[in-house]
Amino acid sequence: MSFLTLDHVSHHYFSKESYTKALDNISMAVKEGEFISLLGPSGCGKSTLLSIIAGIIQQTEGTVSLQGKSTTESEMEIGYMLQQDYLFPWKTIIDNVLLGPKINGNKTDDLRKKALQLLKEVGLKDVEMKYPSELSGGMRQRVALVRTLINNPKILLLDEPFSALDYQTKLNLEDLVADLLKSYHKTAVLVTHDIGEAIAMSDRIFMMNANPGSIAKIYEVPIELRNEVPFLVRRHPKYQLIFDKIWDELESKESQQKVVEIPNE
Ligand SMILES: Nc1ncnc2c1ncn2[C@@H]1O[C@H](COP(=O)(O)OP(=O)(O)OP(=O)(O)O)[C@@H](O)[C@H]1O
């Protein structure tokens, strides 16, 4: 049985003024511990798809399940990491990390130890009593990662989590996230515009079409690249070949973007 299953998922946005068919008939099966990326032209529905997997929005058609359970029932088992860290500025780092478990009514004494361990694992020692404003963007994003992992989610949904960071910080964080997810055997879905990031981090890359959003192609990253840390994947002889192939595909999709017509009622 696959870990995350999407079966014929479609989604339409309706309002009085407009209608958008954002996703059309998406099916995919993600294995436990697998890292997949969603890549595609702007507006092809990547974030919509991630929100549906997260159970934040309900798809118009089709089913989404995590280990056989609907994702709306498994909300607590899903971790979400976004471009912005959304840390509360008036709370210390440790209080930010422990806020989720606290809201869920969990005792935080044991979790405090785990939080400090995770902070150490992401290279943040002795920051627990600091406030977010005292940390750099990359450090705050690492705190956001710890805040996600403290809930021990079964799956991590990553919506362009590195795109607001400078290039060097982004590469370092990619290595860190890949290493942590591997060591905790977490399944992950990454939305990105960065082809290099998708190749460096993923087992498989789902290339999407726009208007409406659908899966156009699935690229399986060769095993020898998957066994490397992301930074070294970018130096692998096969990396540029895969990059060029995906680049050409993406370029042709950008140029094919059409205006969607609003159907008559
Ligand atoms: N709340 C909404 N109401 C109406 N239409 C929406 C809404 N959110 C997204 N859309 C439309 O649905 C389509 C898919 O949007 P979505 O944000 O999922 O794409 P994306 O691939 O994540 O885009 P980008 O790469 O630019 O972030 C687009 O046509 C967008 O305009």
Would you report the number of β strands?
Answer: 10
The strands making up the biggest β-sheet line up spatially as 6-7-8-3-9-10
The overall pLDDT, averaged over residues, is 88
CATH domain topology of the largest domain: Rossmann fold
Compute the CA-based radius of gyration. Answer: 19 Å
Order of helices and strands: EEEHEEEHHHEHEHEEHHH
Q: Count of helical segments?
A: 9
CATH class of the largest domain: Alpha Beta
Which percent range fits the helix content?
25-40%
Alpha-beta content class: alpha/beta
Bound molecules: adenosine-5'-triphosphate
Describe the structure.
- With 265 residues, the chain is α/β, with parallel strands linked by helices.
- The protein has two domains: 1-74 and 155-265, P-loop containing nucleotide triphosphate hydrolases (Rossmann fold); 87-153, no CATH class.
- Helices cover 36% and strands 24% of the residues.
- It is built from nine helices and ten strands.
- The protein has helices spanning 46-54, 93-103, 109-121, 137-149, 167-183, 195-201, 223-226, 230-233, 239-255; strands at 4-14, 19-30, 35-39, 61-66, 69-70, 78-81, 155-159, 187-191, 204-209, 214-220.
- It has a six-stranded mixed sheet, sandwiched between helices. Strands 2-1-4-5 form a four-stranded antiparallel sheet, with helices on one face.
- Helix 2 packs across helix 3 (109-121), helix 2 (93-103) packs parallel to helix 4 and helix 6 packs across helix 9 (239-255).
- It is globular and about 50 Å long.
- Bound molecules: adenosine-5'-triphosphate.
- Adenosine-5'-triphosphate is lined by residues 13, 20, 22, 42-48.
- Residues 13, 20, 22, 42-48 line the site of adenosine-5'-triphosphate.
